[in-house]
């Protein structure tokens, strides 16, 4: 799933490649991708792209007086093409969900991008709105952890009265915007903190470590992604992860084996030595063995 660092890299890429061009055509090929109908998607056509913003995991292209907002969800992606095919895309069962054609340079080919989504669970969402706050997912977002006004005190205030485990706290978009499953694992590993630790039990030292880990992990990931071509960002993300998605591999810090806890639709990874004092966290698949 694209998270804050990858979406920020896509924002920077579009800022360099799409701003100043006219949006000539927005062509959906999947009926479920478009979540708004007024204004219609065709209202974007003929408008100039003047800015690209990020709201958590949402991309926001300002096109004339309107906004084209994209949520890539778990399996969505953006594929830039310097020369789009002349033939219009055909609706079908493939991964293509939306094609955006932009104005060309002189007599050259028209560039643009495709929004694609793998798998059978189609959650990629596109909105055409007059203001980003009209998108429900944006309206409920918590503060951006990389914003200048997100301080250690801001984090401490969010933790007050929190009853969930710290892993769930970090992933809640209404609490912090942009952190998902992968980077919450990475942040907790950097903070040397169990994903199951109750957020309400974090003391001042824990909060200091967690804040530093959020800042360092996300900023390092953004820096690694900066300048990487849009099509290579997934590979770049995976190469920079230390524990997430690396079950069974040695921890790059201490050498212990990275372990996994599985849930119905996701999993988390952690290092026992770095994060839980050597204790293995109960995995539902192995709970009988760990009792």
Automatic annotation (TrEMBL):
InterPro entries membership: FPG_cat, FPG_N, H2TH_FPG, Ribosomal_uS13-like_H2TH, Znf_DNA_glyclase/AP_lyase, Znf_FPG/IleRS
SMART domains: Fapy_DNA_glyco, H2TH
Domain FPG-type stretches: 242-276
Keywords: DNA damage, DNA repair, DNA-binding, Glycosidase, Hydrolase, Lyase, Metal-binding, Multifunctional enzyme, Zinc, Zinc-finger
Top-level taxon of the source organism: Bacteria
Cofactor(s) needed: Zn(2+)
GO BP annotation list: base-excision repair
Domain Formamidopyrimidine-DNA glycosylase catalytic: 2-119
Catalysis performed (reactions): Hydrolysis of DNA containing ring-opened 7-methylguanine residues, releasing 2,6-diamino-4-hydroxy-5-(N-methyl)formamidopyrimidine
Gene Ontology molecular function terms on file: 8-oxo-7,8-dihydroguanine DNA N-glycosylase activity; damaged DNA binding; DNA-(apurinic or apyrimidinic site) endonuclease activity; lyase activity; zinc ion binding
PANTHER family registered for this protein in UniProt: FORMAMIDOPYRIMIDINE-DNA GLYCOSYLASE
Family recorded in the similarity comment: Belongs to the FPG family.
Name the UniProt record assigns to this protein: Fpg/Nei family DNA glycosylase
Organism of origin: Streptomyces rimosus subsp. rimosus (strain ATCC 10970 / DSM 40260 / JCM 4667 / NRRL 2234)
């Amino acid at each position: 799933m694209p998270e804050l660092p990858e979406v920020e890299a896509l924002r920077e890429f579009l800022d360099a490649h799409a701003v100043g061009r006219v949006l000539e055509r927005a062509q959906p090929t999947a009926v479920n991708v478009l979540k708004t109908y007024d204004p219609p998607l065709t209202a974007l056509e003929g408008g100039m792209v003047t800015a690209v913003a990020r709201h958590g995991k949402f991309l926001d292209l300002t096109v004339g007086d309107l906004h084209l907002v994209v949520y890539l969800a778990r399996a969505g992606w953006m594929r830039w093409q310097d020369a789009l095919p002349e033939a219009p895309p055909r609706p079908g069962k493939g991964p293509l969900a939306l094609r955006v054609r932009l104005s060309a340079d002189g007599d050259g080919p028209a560039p643009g991008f495709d929004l694609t989504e793998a798998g059978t669970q189609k959650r990629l969402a596109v909105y055409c709105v007059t203001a980003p706050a009209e998108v429900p997912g944006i309206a409920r977002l918590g503060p951006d952890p990389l914003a200048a006004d997100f301080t250690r005190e801001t984090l401490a205030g969010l933790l007050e009265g929190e009853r969930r485990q710290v892993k769930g706290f970090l992933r809640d978009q209404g609490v912090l915007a942009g952190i998902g499953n992968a980077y919450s694992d990475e942040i907790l590993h950097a903070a040397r903190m169990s994903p199951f630790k109750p957020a309400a039990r974090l003391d001042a030292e824990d909060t200091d470590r967690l804040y530093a880990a959020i800042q360092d992990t996300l900023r390092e990931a953004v820096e690694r992604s900066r300048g990487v071509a849009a099509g290579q960002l997934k590979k770049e993300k995976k190469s920079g992860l230390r524990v997430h998605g690396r079950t069974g591999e040695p921890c790059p810090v201490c050498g212990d084996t990275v372990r996994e806890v599985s849930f119905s639709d996701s999993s988390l990874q952690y290092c026992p030595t770095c994060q839980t004092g050597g204790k293995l966290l109960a995995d539902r698949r192995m709970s009988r063995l760990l009792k």
